[in-house]
Amino acid sequence: MLIETLVWATSTCIPAARKAGLVSEVAAIAGRHKRHKSLWGHHLTHTKSFIEKHLSLVDPNKPILILGSGLCLDIPLSALNKHAAGVVLMDAVQPLATRIACIGFANIQFCYADITGFLRPFWNSKEGAKITPPPIAPINLNHYGMVISCNLLSQLPLSFAHSPPTDETERRLTASIQLAHMKALTSLSCPALLITDYERLESEAGSTNNIPTISPRLVPREPEETWQWHIAPKGDIRPGLDIKLNVGGWLLSS
Ligand SMILES: C[S@@+](CC[C@H](N)C(=O)[O-])C[C@H]1O[C@@H](n2cnc3c(N)ncnc32)[C@H](O)[C@@H]1O
Q1: pLDDT at residue 130, as a whole number
Q2: Which among 22, 193, 195 is the best mutation to test ligand 1's pocket, defined by most ligand atoms within 8 Å of the CB?
Q3: C-alpha distances in angstroms, 209 versus 15, 144, 244?
């Protein structure tokens, strides 16, 4: 609990991020990572190597944008820092651990942003008001040499709906938030990498439930690579429940 409290108290964020639960989510990730470092290693290493493997495609004169930098557990900071045109880490939350991890990496900067453009309208709206998210993620992605969406897509709707969604309103919101993100990524003139979980495997008492975390229709084709993230072993959430995520990496344009 100490690590969660520390991360929660020392993170800085955009207005609405605390109310939306994003700071608590980042704190929970820090806690779970600390408890299950060795189980998470495979996923974190795989995400980093998927990014590193594609860095040769980046225009050397333009910066790289990382969406969903969080605690930078899955980001190859040292390799990225070699990109002389610079790297921008974008997130609604900047944990102290990220600020510390970036010390000494002169080419890496941090930028606060709401990648959905919907946090403020949603969390400031009156209960029952009919509001809809922007149809395309409202962030300027045009001057980058590569945009990397890093373990973010399945997380974006969590500020507005449960996972899996509990009713039709939540289902619609989840679908439109994820679609807006995909529209932004697929409309780029530079290469984009999408790294996201697409399925959660919940195993308990000998049976496994496969729950999609994104719509299969959102992604244009099969992932270039897939791997598993053993996110919560038995006992982490409740005794007997084991959760793994199937994760994919896509190169969306070139
Ligand atoms: C699962 S984490 C990604 C993992 C991260 N790369 C790491 O190593 O910690 C998802 C990240 O998405 C961010 N996020 C979620 N919704 C967001 C939004 N609307 N705008 C910006 N960032 C958002 C969270 O703050 C969190 O840091």
Answers
A1: 82
A2: 22
A3: 36, 39, 11
- List the structure tokens of 42: 């495979």
Nearest CA residue ID for atom 5, ligand 1: 70
Mean pLDDT for the stretch of residues 215-236: 94
Structure tokens at 250: 């896509």
Nearest to 29 by CA among 118, 106, 97, 107: 97
What is the spatial distance between Cα 148 and Cα 69, in angstroms, rounded to a whole number? 10
Locus of tokens 């938030």: 177
Strand (E) or helix (H) holding 106: none
List, in sequence order, every residue forming a beta bridge with 203; answer none if it has no partner: 208, 242
Contact between 65 and 144 (Cβ < 8 Å):
yes
Dist. CA 229–CA 157, nearest whole Å = 20
Token representation of residue 61: 């004169």
Confidence of residue 1 (pLDDT cuts 50, 70, 90): confident
CB of 26 shorter than 6 A to ligand 1: yes
Nearest CA to ligand 1 atom 16: 156
Count of helices and strands (H, E) across the chain: 7, 10
How many angstroms does the Cα of residue 155 sit away from the middle of ligand 1? 7
Q: Give dist(CA 114, CA 32) in Å, integer.
A: 24
In the reported structure, the alpha carbon of residue 196 is separated from the centroid of ligand 1 by a whole-number distance in angstroms of: 11
Cα-to-centroid distance, 206 and ligand 1 (Å)? 32
Q: How far apart are CA 72 and CA 78, in angstroms?
A: 11
Map out the domains of the chain with their CATH numbers: 2-251 (3.40.50)
